Amino acid sequence: MNPSTGGGVSRAFLVACVVATALASGCGGTKTKDVSTSGPKANDGLTDLKTLLDSVKAGQQKLPKSAAEMAAIEPMFPVAGAFIQNGSIEYVWGAKFADGAEAAKRMVAFEAKAASEGGLVLLQDGTIKEVSAAEFSGLEKAKP
User: Fold this and answer.
1) What's this model's pTM, rounded to 2 decimal places?
2) Phi and psi at residue 91, in whole multiples of 5°?
3) Which of 12, 71, 95, 105 has a CA that sits 20 to 30 A from residue 81's CA?
4) Chain Cα centroid distance, residue 44
């Protein structure tokens, strides 16, 4: 190493090695349907979908009735869109919020795992709640 260069080449090489090692350790593995543990959670996705359905109820947004229609508005509701697209959240296409006691028993969206493991549901009255698999089986899907 040449002292007059200040070791710049050696430092650059060292930095490149550290960066390459860090990147390599984060690559590979298996791809799953789950969203990263450090990113948004299912509750965030359902909350974003609730915001969308509140906008529909207020007449500010058109109700998405298909995956294609959801894709068109996904930039405005990116968390809900990502969870629906990757299958972590299932949305009953065309279902919207309603009033009344029965709305608290009908789901407009839910975590895909809820039927088997329990999980979060978004009810037709706008409530997000966690249910067991047994409770999930007692709920019905909202009608579009």
Assistant:
1) 0.72
2) -110, 135
3) 105
4) 7
